[in-house]
Structure formats: structure tokens, C-alpha cells
Design brief:
Layout lengths: L1 H39 L2 E2 L12 E6 L5 E8 L6 E11 L10 E7 L3 H12 L7 E9 L2 H12 L5 H7 E9 L2 H31 L4 H10 L3 H10 L1 E2 L7 E2 L3 E6 L2 E6 L3 E13 L2 E13 L2 E9 L2 H14 L4 E2 L3 H9 L1 H7 L23
Parallel strand pairs: 1-2, 5-7, 12-15
Antiparallel strand pairs: 2-6, 3-4, 4-5, 6-7, 8-9, 9-10, 10-11, 12-13, 13-14
Helix pairs in contact: 1-5, 9-10
Length: 371
């Protein structure tokens, strides 16, 4: 039993664990350099030579720009109103002492538009403005962004050769609050590491049998020996194709997520069917069927998902026939009694007979009840 469950748990855990590991590797690997730069300090954009500019996280003291060539906006689908969110401005690389420099772009939040427009006018007149500090990540212009960048320069008489020689196809995607947006890369990196470790731990735990710890505890807390549970599990009636939901004479076995668990039958109090109809925009999209079980070890209830109503009723009928101390069926009165007067609820069945499973084949052994 336990070896079988360990293999089943490993098999069931493996796919999701591998996905977690791959996603973790992707997040951690993709954001590692950005997170490292943010933690150790942003790269000074002015210090970067054109051939060294690629995808760094940078700090830029912007004192000059050469005008806006593109704006981004969002559209309210309800009112069709548009709101400008960002502007793209032409800037140059390096500092005033640089002899090797290129034109490229910076993308700034819309609230900086008037300041950078004023800066552009000052730059055109040969002056220098008070620097504005931006933090951002260098990214490559996509085809649409590059089209507008080239179109803007062509209006000033630039040829394709001039653009090829004098520009870089990059922009600084700026964020004004480095601790907020820059921390996003750190969060992604840390999240990736956590997912990676969690995926590895899941596989290691399943392979070593660690995922069965809760099941062992369920058995010990119920006062049964593992040898008796081995036999009970083998002879239990199951209610799903994989055999993960089983009702034995001693315990009911189920899987919580990917973890095998069990609830002692002699502590069960109440079981009933719960049917949920799902609708989208008023249209029925499906129905799920569950068997709800309440007991001393699960006072708030356990939900066992089953394939259909027939399986739910089969399981409830089995409870009714083999566990005479369990109230089977639902009514608002039973719910009120269970929640408000547990003592009286227990007098319905729980306290009226021995908690020993009976053989449903014996005439009269099943208790009356409505599922």
C-alpha cells in the first residue's frame, strides 16, 4: 500500500514539479542580472560605450533630449476615451566628454512630457537643462517603435546610412520610483528561486516517501496499526477510476492535492451530496458533484469530488449501509442542528450504536437513511 502510494504520489507530483522547476529556472535566470544590478547599484548610463549597451538596468541623469517621436496610450473600452501613458524621446549616449556616441531613445511616463518638451527646446537652442534622474532597463525597439524612430529622424534629412551609423536600436524603459519598479526584478528573481527549490523539494519528498507523512499521522492519530490499514486499504471500495478515493471498514482514503490522506470512519458524523452548477453570463457551463463528509477530525467538512451523481449516491449508499452511526443526507434542519446543537445532532445516530462497520450483505445491517 505505502509503496504503491509513494510511486503514485511521485508520478502525480512529477509533471507539476518539473513545470515549477522550469518556470523557476526561467524567472531566476532571466532576471538574475537585473536583480544583481539593482541590489549592487544601477549602472551609470553615461559610462556605457555604444558597443556595451544592451540590456542593463541603468541610472541616467537626463539633461538633453532631441524631441518626442512617439507616444503610447491606453483606451477605455467602455467610453472609447484614450489616455496618454508614455512618451518616447530621442537622447544620446555617453556624456559631454564622449567622442564615441549614438542617438537612441528613452521612454518616460506621460507626467514628464512637459518637462522633457521644455528640455528639448533648451537643447535645440544650445542650452543645458537641470538634469532629471531616471532609472530604467535598456530594451530593444520593436519593429513599430523603430519605424517611428526612423521616420522622425528622416524628417530631419537623415538617410538610412546615417541612421545605421549614428543610432542604436535601443530605448531606456524608465521608472521614476526605483525602489518600486526596480524591486519588481528582485521579486521575480526571488520568486523564481523559490519555485525552483519548491519543485525540487516536491520531487525529493515524493521520492523519499515524505509525502506520506500526513497519512502516517492520520493512521497513528486514529489508533490503528499500519498493518491493519494495509489490509483495510486493499479491501476498500473505491469511487474513482484511479482508486485514490476509497472507503474501507476502518478509514476513508483520499488525496488532498497530491498528498494521500485518510479519515477514520468511526469519527464520521455526517455525509451528503453537494452539487454545484456553474454558469457564465447566465448560461450553464457545467456541473460538479461532491460528497461532503463531517466528523470529529473534520468538523468543518471534507470535500470529495466525484465524477457524477451516480458515483456520489453510490458512495453515500455505501456509507449508509456500512457505517450506521453516520447521518447520510442533507436538509436545512440537519445543517442547523449540526451547527447550533451538535449534542442533539449526535443523538440522531452517532451516539446510538457501536462504531464498528457492518457487512452490507447481511440482512438488516444497513441503517435507514436518505442520501
Amino acid at each position: 500500500m505505502f509503496e504503491e502510494l509513494k510511486k503514485r504520489t511521485l508520478k502525480g507530483t512529477l509533471a507539476w514539479s518539473i513545470i515549477l522547476i522550469l518556470v523557476g529556472l526561467g524567472l531566476a535566470g532571466w532576471n538574475a542580472m537585473d536583480a544583481f544590478q539593482i541590489v549592487t547599484g544601477y549602472t551609470d548610463f553615461a559610462s556605457l560605450e555604444p558597443d556595451k549597451i544592451s540590456n542593463q538596468v541603468v541610472k541616467v541623469e537626463l539633461a538633453d533630449n532631441f524631441g518626442c517621436y512617439l507616444e503610447e496610450y491606453s483606451k477605455n473600452t467602455r467610453t472609447n476615451a484614450t489616455t496618454t501613458t508614455d512618451y518616447y524621446y530621442v537622447i544620446w549616449t555617453g556624456d559631454d566628454e564622449s567622442t564615441d556616441w549614438r542617438y537612441m531613445s528613452i521612454k518616460v511616463p506621460a507626467r514628464y512630457g512637459s518637462q522633457l518638451d521644455t528640455m528639448a527646446m533648451t537643447t535645440a537652442e544650445g542650452g543645458t537643462s537641470t538634469p532629471i534622474t531616471f532609472y530604467g532597463k535598456i530594451k530593444k525597439l520593436d519593429s513599430e517603435e523603430m519605424y517611428y524612430f526612423k521616420d522622425y529622424l528622416e524628417d530631419f534629412g537623415w538617410t538610412d546610412a546615417d541612421i545605421e551609423e549614428g543610432t542604436l536600436p535601443y530605448y531606456i524603459d524608465s521608472f521614476a520610483i526605483p525602489s518600486l519598479y526596480g524591486g519588481f526584478y528582485v521579486i521575480l528573481f526571488v520568486g523564481g528561486v523559490v519555485l525552483l527549490i519548491y519543485g525540487i523539494v516536491r520531487i525529493a519528498s515524493a521520492a523519499s516517501g515524505g509525502a506520506l507523512k500526513k497519512l502516517h499521522k492520520d493512521i497513528a492519530d486514529a489508533g490503528f496499526t499500519e498493518a491493519s490499514i494495509e489490509s483495510d486499504y486493499r479491501s476498500a471500495k473505491f469511487f474513482d477510476k484511479k482508486g485514490t478515493l476509497r472507503v474501507g471498514r476502518l478509514m476513508t482514503y483520499y488525496t488532498a492535492g497530491s498528498i494521500p490522506r485518510a479519515i477514520p470512519n468511526n469519527k464520521m458524523m455526517w455525509a451528503y451530496q453537494n452539487t454545484v452548477t456553474h454558469r457564465t453570463n447566465g448560461v450553464k457551463t457545467g456541473t460538479t458533484y461532491n460528497v461532503m463528509v463531517y466528523g470529529e477530525t473534520a468538523p468543518k467538512g471534507l470535500t470529495f469530488a466525484v465524477a457524477n451523481e451516480a458515483v456520489a449516491q453510490d458512495m453515500l449508499n455505501h456509507f449508509n449501509a456500512t457505517l450506521p452511526w453516520v447521518v447520510v443526507g442533507y436538509s436545512d434542519e440537519l445543517k442547523k442542528l449540526y451547527n447550533k446543537d451538535r449534542t442533539q445532532f449526535l443523538q440522531l445516530r452517532y451516539n446510538t450504536c457501536e462504531h464498528t462497520a457492518v457487512d452490507p450483505a447481511q440482512e438488516g445491517s444497513g441503517a435507514d437513511g436518505q442520501a
